[in-house]
Write a structure and sequence with these properties.
Organism: Triparma columacea
Helix content: 25-40%
Structural class: alpha+beta
Catalytic activity: O-phospho-L-threonyl-[protein] + H2O = L-threonyl-[protein] + phosphate; O-phospho-L-seryl-[protein] + H2O = L-seryl-[protein] + phosphate
Protein name: protein-serine/threonine phosphatase
Oligomer: single chain
EC number: 3.1.3.16
Family: Belongs to the PP2C family.
Largest sheet: 6 strands, antiparallel
CATH architecture of one domain: 4-Layer Sandwich
Length: 421
Amino acid sequence: MGAYLSSPNCEKNTTTGSSQSPVNGTTLEWSATDMQGWRKSMEDAHITKTDLGDGNMCFAVFDGHGGSGVARFCEKHMVDVLREQEVYKGGDIGKALKETFHGLDDMIDSSEYREEIGRLGAEKKELVGEGGKGSEGEDADGEKMRPSEAIELFQKLLSMSRNGGKEEGGDDTKPKEDSASKAVETSSAETTPTVGRQRVLSTSVSTVDPRTGKQQCLLPDHPVHAGCTSVVAVVKGKEITVANAGDSRAVLRRKDSVFPLSYDHKPASEIESERIKKAGGFVNQFGRVNGNLNLSRSIGDLKYKQNIEVKREEQMITAEPDLITTTLEDGDEFIIIGCDGIWDCLTNEEACDFVSSRIETMKVSDIVEECLNTIVSEDPRATQGIGGDNMTLVVVDLKAGLREKNLGGGAGEGAKGGEDE
């Protein structure tokens, strides 16, 4: 079944913990669960630390692609890199998070960490069954193609065959670039291994093939192919700062309303596509940068961060996070952080309602596990990929100490595992 298993791996890795709530001074409880699901490997990672050594807390989710190495590298090193920032020591959490995201990029680019990234990726790799890089359901670079994209591609090709090579509704006799053509028309510059990030001009980033009229990526490759979207929440006293690069997401249940703590970055959005084009790249009709990545911000993906003419935050794929900072209020209930495998299935409101309807009577860990069981697809082909991705979900109950639950046992530290180290 291409990029999917014949049946989902629903085994869950759940950890729980507790601390003092910054909202009311009672108990805060959290739970984090990850599940491989239908994917042939688990590429997510996360952080749940309720004390960074200075009383600050950090909760984060990293959604890996091209392997789990970069996601697990961020899981291992992000907190240390954050604490080393001078601006962090000075109290500017937002600026420190930005410097941390880019600092991790620099570390990933360094040959010093190359072996570690490879080892971390290999430790988490859990391939099952046949298929692999370049197999059905993946593009030439091993990026996941969702069934909905495959269906759309098939319909386009079928329509074009009926119209003598023309796209339905279009005048161009040459089809636009798609993931299938990308698999057989990868430029020689992409397949030539290099030592590290090359320095190229925007005019050498991509080109149009005169034979087909299709845009092609000309970027030299990088030894580290992997990357990860990153959403990181740091709680300092009653202030929470969320840094987001990509389409993982965080949301706060504020009394009876939903307060977004991040917004997704998609290549097709106006702000993202403009930056990509200015850096010399392009977004194809499937919303993929240079015909490959279906995301526009991430840590890693260094192949797309080589244009010498633009700043780090202006690269076609950038680690530059957007920031949202807010003061936690007495009526705030809980925080939800998840990878896009969660948010493909649930809106912010649906996720908050799911937790809210259970949090007065259930352990947080049971809520998180039930949520993953509820949204995993019975057949990702039938749901066009929805519910077929890796899933990582973190819920932080800010008012746990005020809830009167008859649970038959505590949900405190170590109930299903300890705090991440």
